[in-house]
Amino acid sequence: MSDRCDVVVLISGSGSNLQALIDSSSNADSPARIRAVISNRADAYGLERARQAGIATRVLDHTQYAGREAFDAALVEAIDAYAPRLVLLAGFMRILTPGFVRHYQGRLLNIHPSLLPLHKGLHTHQRALEAGDAEHGCSVHFVTEELDGGPLVVQAVIPVESGDTPESLARRVHAEEHRIYPLAMRWFAEGRLHLGEQGALLDGQALPPCGQQLRN
């Protein structure tokens, strides 16, 4: 496909969501092309996933920089070398500076393992169980300066079952993450998904506050 949307993916770990994105973008009809995978950890297995797919990789060790601002400035330089239209956070375990977020405003997406705005931050599956939630899931959202607080694009919703543990919930939520993140990437690459002044737009129509919800 000509004029494909160039994408850079940021990771810190095993890269299971990255693998789903690679698998999706490797299809001949995919409007997206992953140009590079960048990690702040040299031991992130996602780097090997990228290499196996023939995708360029970079490692920027955040511990080698004087602070968040210095690291994020180097990260911007590394990303922009590939001139991506879209940057995806796929398990990138860094809190980004406001300057970084503003630089990529409207073209920076993240996936979070909860039905935002519920359970921002970490340990979402345990917290969903402790709260007695009847439903759980995952969310793709535009990144803003508010942690896990940007406009929602799409959510996958699953029921919480009586015997669920944090581990069983995590497994089922991961499967849904691997479904909705490639979908959001495709929408953006096709020019269907945008960030407007009032929130996320799909096909020119404002998405609801929860984004588009998909249920099994």
TrEMBL record:
GO CC aspect terms: cytosol
Protein keywords: Purine biosynthesis, Transferase
Highest taxon of the lineage: Bacteria
This enzyme's EC code(s): 2.1.2.2
Family that this chain belongs to: Belongs to the GART family.
UniProt pathway: Purine metabolism; IMP biosynthesis via de novo pathway; N(2)-formyl-N(1)-(5-phospho-D-ribosyl)glycinamide from N(1)-(5-phospho-D-ribosyl)glycinamide (10-formyl THF route): step 1/1
Pfam families: Formyl_trans_N
Protein name in UniProt: Phosphoribosylglycinamide formyltransferase
Swiss-Prot/TrEMBL site (Raises pKa of active site His) positions: D148
Domain annotation Formyl transferase N-terminal: ranges: 7-184
Active-site residues per Swiss-Prot or TrEMBL entry: H112
UniProt: N(1)-(5-phospho-beta-D-ribosyl)glycinamide binding residues: G15, S16, N17
Record field: catalytic activity: N(1)-(5-phospho-beta-D-ribosyl)glycinamide + (6R)-10-formyltetrahydrofolate = N(2)-formyl-N(1)-(5-phospho-beta-D-ribosyl)glycinamide + (6S)-5,6,7,8-tetrahydrofolate + H(+)
Keyword Transferase found: yes
GO molecular function terms attached to this record: phosphoribosylglycinamide formyltransferase activity
One Gene Ontology biological process: 'de novo' IMP biosynthetic process
Family matches, as PROSITE patterns: GART (PS00373)
Binding, (6R)-10-formyltetrahydrofolate: R68, M93, R94, I95, L96, N110
Function according to Swiss-Prot or TrEMBL: Catalyzes the transfer of a formyl group from 10-formyltetrahydrofolate to 5-phospho-ribosyl-glycinamide (GAR), producing 5-phospho-ribosyl-N-formylglycinamide (FGAR) and tetrahydrofolate.
Keyword Transferase among record annotations: yes
